[in-house]
Amino acid sequence: MPKQVQMDAVSYEAVRGMIFVIRGQSVMIDRDLAHLYEVPTKRLNEQVKRNIKRFPKDFMFPLSMHETSELVANCDRFKRLKHSSSRPYAFTEQGVAMLSSVLKSDRAIQVNIAIMRIFTKLRQMLADHAEFKDKIEEMEKKYDHQFQVVFRALKDLLDEPSAPKIKPIGFHVK
To answer: How far apart (Å, rounded) are the C-alpha atoms in residues 58 and 30?
Structure first.
């Protein structure tokens, strides 16, 4: 009977912070995946290159220089990429699933299962959010104008928050 792999390090919050939207797709970066699988990034990419037929462009793609710069600017954990000559790879959900056929360790299998569950949960949350917004708009059409304030407040809660207004510092003469 195979021993159970400890999955304490693979929490929803940890993996959620490793999922980015690049080119309109939810992806994970090779360095984050290597960290989760507890293998060097170089070894993960070697296995992928040995099995490159399993990774078409919609499963995995190299980041452009601009995308890499954005990643470095937004995430401190990628600061080593700033001066790196190699570009990181982004893996879509299908690419992450395909990694389980390439990486054969118990850890890789357990991490893949956890990541697939998280992608599914995120997809469900996005669907629920869109469904809720559609229901509000439907109700808005049905009811009279006295509820407009309520509907506007609900829409504001669902929309992305805007940057808070910052009061200028210092003494100002009126």
So the answer is: 15
Task: Name the architecture of domain 12-127.
Answer: Roll (3.10)
Q: Please report, in tens digits, the pLDDT of each residue of the chain (174 residues total).
A: 344 444 444 677 778 888 888 998 889 999 999 998 889 999 999 999 999 999 999 999 999 999 998 888 888 888 888 888 888 999 998 898 888 788 878 887 788 788 888 878 877 877 777 777 777 667 666 665 556 666 666 666 666 655 556 666 666 666
Domain boundaries, the chain: 12-127
Of 102, 87, 11, 115, give the one whose Cα is nearest residue 54.
Answer: 102
40, 34 in Cβ contact below 8 A?
A: yes
**Predicted TM-score of the model (pTM):** 0.63
